[in-house]
Design goal:
five-stranded mixed beta sheet, about 20% strand, about 45% helix
């Protein structure tokens, strides 16, 4: 087996997937902290911290961090999500030591210079404004906040301008000290490397992590509701959804198959009915967003102002139909799509590295590909219809942005789902 796992004395989990047929290595640190771990007064701190990690350490300034990785043709990047933060690099196999050193440096020895902080706050505020100017992005923030109101899970990953602008250096550093410890980190790599040498690098490099930290994570509490914002746009951007499931739910693979059947490709029911047969939307798809303790099953569509009145009734028709009928051809296509997505991703060191880290973070172990494929193949039509009946009830969440006057009423939507 090419996957090996070692846990260091400081709590850091080190895991690698050896691929001897490639010339590169993808390596990164995944930290079990994200937007859902932020109090209201520091919303956006996880994302701000991610930016600041690249702005200088005791040994390197911001330019040196960028120049050293690019001098060997590699790249270094990061992202923040609702449940975790990731810092990762991709390099040629002979440059692994440099990448590990850079990651260890920015995660243990960042200085958070006040001038750099002020500049990065301004950059993030521009990023927030850019997101607000992209309606098919920002509608998802409104949807999330409506589904999870007044709680961290519903708050924007980027934060809000006034909160980001007011964040002080000491508060960002305190957040890092209180959330970035070895027990909360997965150090993962995939590519042409030897596990034992990788472990030795990890031991030598990650030797200044903060003491083990424990913090409370609020349980996500789905509520649902209705959000509409009228804007002068050419399209109405609509997201409709209901409470979904956690990653660990026994019906996870059935729900993934359902999402593929309903809106997972050009042959899916929503694409065929809404776009191909009726021309009501250019883009329409379903999605399954899973968290450790909760989730959402949703549908996005972008449609014209005049076409908007017909959109949700037709979506609801398809939701009703999939609870009663799923044919063999649809099941075969869905299984093939899910399996090919997984198997094709195995050709990418970056995908394998991230998949490995996320599996350990969520499930506590690497999950063999054969096991995943077996579980996908085990899903039958009855399981898909069963999870559809389970999910497509209760309180819906609706978010609409643009010329919203013709969007169906929320009470009508709720009533049809409850029938």
């Amino acid at each position: 087996m090419s996957i090996n796992l070692t846990r260091l004395d400081n709590g850091l989990t080190v895991v690698s997937d050896t691929m001897t047929t490639v010339e590169t290595v993808s390596v990164g640190v995944w930290i079990d902290v994200g937007t859902r771990d932020e109090h209201l007064e520091i919303n956006g701190v996880s994302h701000l911290l991610e930016h600041m990690a690249f702005k200088g350490t005791k040994r390197r300034n911001a330019y040196a961090i960028a120049a050293e990785i690019e001098a060997v043709g590699g790249h270094l990047n990061a992202y923040t999500s609702r449940e975790h933060t990731a810092y990762y690099a991709k390099i040629l196999k002979d440059d692994l030591e440099l990448a590990v050193d850079l990651l260890g440096d920015i995660l243990q020895h960042s200085v958070f210079d006040n001038e750099e902080l002020a500049r990065e706050q301004a950059v993030i505020i521009q990023e927030i404004h850019q997101a607000h100017d992209t309606p098919d992005d920002v509608v998802f923030d409104h949807f999330q906040e409506t589904a999870y109101p007044d709680q961290p899970m519903g708050r924007p990953v980027l934060g809000r301008p006034d909160v980001v602008q007011s964040m002080e250096r000491e508060r960002v550093m305190d957040y890092m000290r209180g959330h970035y410890s070895g027990s909360k980190m997965i150090f993962a790599a995939a590519g042409n490397l030897e596990h034992d040498k990788f472990v030795d690098l990890a031991k030598a490099t990650f030797n200044a992590l903060p003491a083990d930290c424990e913090f409370e994570r609020d349980q996500a509490s789905y509520q649902g509701g209705d959000f509409r914002e009228s804007r002068e746009l050419e399209q109405v951007h609509v997201v409709m959804g209901l409470e979904g499931i956690a990653f660990s739910d026994p019906d996870f693979y059935a729900a993934s198959t359902l999402s593929t059947v309903l809106g997972g490709g050009m042959s899916s029911r929503l694409f065929q009915e809404i776009r191909e047969k009726r021309g009501l939307a250019y883009s329409i798809y379903s999605f399954l967003s899973c968290y450790k303790d909760n989730g959402i099953f949703g549908i996005y569509a972008g449609t014209g102002a005049d076409e908007a009145k017909d959109l949700l009734p037709l979506v609801l028709d398809e939701i009703k139909k999939v609870q009663d009928t799923v044919d063999d051809d649809e099941m075969a296509r869905a299984r093939a799509q899910l399996k090919s997505g997984i198997l094709m991703s195995l050709e990418s060191t970056s995908s394998r590295c991230e998949q490995l880290a996320r599996q350990i973070m969520v499930f506590g172990r690497p999950i063999p590909t054969a096991e995943i494929v077996e579980k996908i193949d085990a899903v039958d039509a009855d399981a898909v219809m069963g999870i559809a009946r389970r999910l497509f009830q209760g309180t819906p969440t609706l978010a609409a942005l643009g010329p919203v006057d013709n969007i169906s009423g929320y009470s009508e939507l709720s009533a049809r789902l409850s029938k």
